[in-house]
Amino acid sequence: MVFLEVFERIFTFEIVVAAAVFVIILGVLVVALLLSRKPSGDKRKRDSHPLIEGIYALLLAGVAGVIVYVTASAHQDVQEGPNGYQVANQAGAIPVDVTAFQWCWRFDYADTAKSVTGTCREKDAGLPTLVVPTGKPVELRLTSSDVIHSLWIPDKAVKLDAFPHQTNTVTITFDEEGRWLGRCAEFCGPYHPSMHFYVKAVSPQEYEQWQQQGTPA
Fold first, then answer.
1. pTM greater than the 0.85 cutoff
2. By residue range, what is the domain housing residue 60?
3. Nearest to 151 by CA among 128, 106, 185, 200
4. 119: domain CATH number?
5. pLDDT digit string (tens) for 56-80?
6. What does the alpha-carbon distance between residue 115 and residue 117 come to, in Å, rounded to a whole number?
């Protein structure tokens, strides 16, 4: 899944850069402290070194520029790739209207008029499950019926805000079968901590059976 791959790549890159910058700055600091030690009674003022300070500033600016460029490129990947936040009406994609409300979720399958919701009060029993087939793009069209919410699937690094009177779209393809916990990532009231749901990816055959017969997911 492109979201998770991009997140892991960027996270690893930024950790490596942060560690390298930390080690370099720590080394420079130690050397500067050792060189700046004065003999007892020496009250002479140390001169600054504009050239060294300028080089240091340029290096920091260069590192920051590289981080911004890499992050922006990754953002572009998840915005415009086959799975992305700006991909809408993709051919063959299964449309699912996702409505967030205080304090649960409703999933309406636009092509079959099937609807799934819950109470989000009791774990497992009260949590709605978004059932999707593996290997096929699923277009989630997210909105809110009251306040701002945010759909978040931590294990897949997918996060999308839900606003009232607005629809945000994300297209996802699940490559493997499984079940993952989803959460609301935007504080939305007293029951926000329990506003969870499940995403369950099943084989296309099992998905068709679930759609046609309504068998439990």
1. no
2. 2-37+49-80
3. 185
4. 2.60.40.420
5. 788 888 888 888 888 877 777 666 6
6. 7
